[in-house]
Model the fold of this input.
Amino acid sequence: MTHPFNASTGFCQGPGSRRSFMRMGLAGFASLSLPGLLRLRAETPDSKRDSKAVIMVWKPGGCSHIDTYDPKPNAGSEYRGPFSTIQTKVPGLDFTELLPMQAAIADKFTVLRSMRQTAGGHPAGSMQLLSGDSDTRDKPKPRLPDWMSVANYLLSQNKQRSNPLPVYVGVNPPTNYTGSAYLGDAYSPFEVKGDPSAANFSVPNIGLSDATEIHNLGRRVSLRKNLDTLERAFDHANELQALDEFETQAMTLLTNPATKDAFDLSQESDATRDRYGRNTWGQQLLLARRLVEAGVEVLTSSLHGPLCGRVSNWDDHAVNHHVFDALRFRAKAYDQAVSALIEDIYDRGLDKRVLVVVTGEFGRTPKISYQPSTGAGNASAAAGTRQPGRDHWPRAFSNIWAGGGIETGRFIGATDKRGEDSIERICGPGDFLATIYHHLGIDSKNVFIKDFNGRPTAIVDHGSPIPELMG
Done:
């Protein structure tokens, strides 16, 4: 049985009792899922205009740094790949031909070319970067909460923010190898799933406008209150609480028309929607911008699915994809969506408040490998066809940073001549996490959260904010 989270102590108390089981049953009977997300969180006192926010754009599987942000045109043909190099708006900073739109606005972001971590598998690599877990072994679920859940937890300690939107929203968020761990599900994201570019796209459980639905919802809440009263008759410890402020927030999210407006992409102009791209990724990132502008502080969005190619991610082993066909296949949608998001953050005056980070868990092998394809599809030849690929590579990779009040139009660090190792201004997961926390006003060196055993655990136990990325 799961261990219920105790708000007063900040850690789990042990196996669930009959009372906790009934409590979960009553919540389920009431059919209210949002309180489970919002419970134990209240909102920060800042207005949406002043509160800091982070949008993390996640590339699951890991993007080839050599074929995008860190080309090596002078390396041998077994390393460099087929793409030509193009100049960006920043002197001395070159990309490959796959990213012309980002190259044109490179003065609006900074490229970190010297990231490194030590885990070669997707689970451990993701957990290292997103939670700071230094373990190199792949695990089925995270031992430490990811930075998004931690930020949600910490930003939720102050109860004076009136914005009905959640602190943490995931628009098709990264869900593999991430999680809230000992913080509990209350600090997981409010998830928005589906294709925002579809004509019938909608977000359930927000902004109810039908009077009958609202009435029925009120009846369910009233029933929950009555059941709580009944349970309390033999709940001598008085542990079960009735409809609380978090359920009130959930009701607000369900009934407040402003919440529905925040998720409504039809309120954007056709020109803006076209600018991002009329596809899943473009509209995901437009929705991300719309939500942080409305007051969401933590926003994650994963660029996966059919736009990636046959296996729906960036894991470009030769058995999965023809790596270069896959990069070509996804390049236009990726380049357009990311460049539009970054430009929009600046055009709308959000660049001091909103930090945009675009990354995956690691890079891809500088040396090209060749293996038979395991199946035909977008960016993959027929099964058995020998094709090129790049494998997992944690020793060097790139990510990009925009907004956040940082100085942009530059690059940080370097890799060696083949892109095999970060050799200058090397940055690791702790530095990555501390930089994000710094933007959100969280002092990562001095914040500890109790784990399952009640032991105070540092949210970052190694690393410091990257000075060039501190606004």
